[in-house]
Write a structure and sequence with these properties.
two-stranded antiparallel sheet, 6 helices, 174 residues, alpha+beta
Length: 174
């Protein structure tokens, strides 16, 4: 029975996590953010979601190949994990996109400060096969209205729209 239980746990983990980075995937992220939104609604607190896109990913993929691009994303994931608390969640939601839910962020000022910390993680180049690669992040912030019923799809959509606007206006911005 323990082998079967272990196999079930492994399968569940694989269903809820990104294979390349080990981060949560979109399914787990949505589940956790929906729980946070419902919890914060009862406490009259906003919920913050941050969307992050790693710029130049397509160029890295096309010029250095899939393996190198995968290693770049894994290094980005490790940098992001280094700035969050255990109760927070980072998910890989696209080939070059991440979503972050920081449990203790409840104001625009806190979200801005955290986003600046995220952007700071990209000041150092990533080294792959002896090459230094400069990455350009775009960050979007969405903060829910504590009095409105919002779901994970809605807040992630808003964060993604803000990220797209930041990317289109100027790289390395939020």
């Amino acid at each position: 029975i323990s082998d079967r239980k272990q196999a079930e746990e492994q399968l569940e983990h694989e269903m809820l996590h990104d294979q390349s980075t080990g981060l949560a995937n979109r399914i787990l992220f949505h589940d956790r953010v929906n729980s946070a939104l419902n919890h914060n609604l009862t406490l009259n607190l906003p919920t913050c979601v941050i969307a992050l896109e790693v710029g130049r990913y397509a160029f890295i993929f096309e010029s250095l190949g899939y393996d190198a691009a995968d290693r770049v994303i894994s290094k980005v994931a490790k940098r992001l994990e280094s700035i969050i608390h255990p109760s927070d969640l980072i998910a890989r939601v696209g080939s070059s996109e991440f979503a972050i839910h920081i449990d203790h962020l409840h104001s625009a000022e806190q979200a801005r400060d955290f986003s600046l910390n995220v952007i700071a993680q990209f000041r150092r180049p990533v080294e792959i096969d002896g090459q230094e690669i400069i990455l350009v992040p775009s960050v979007g912030i969405a903060i829910s209205d504590p009095n409105a019923e919002v779901d994970a799809d809605m807040i992630l959509h808003d964060a993604h729209a803000a990220m797209t606007q930041a990317r289109d206006n100027s790289a390395s911005k939020y």
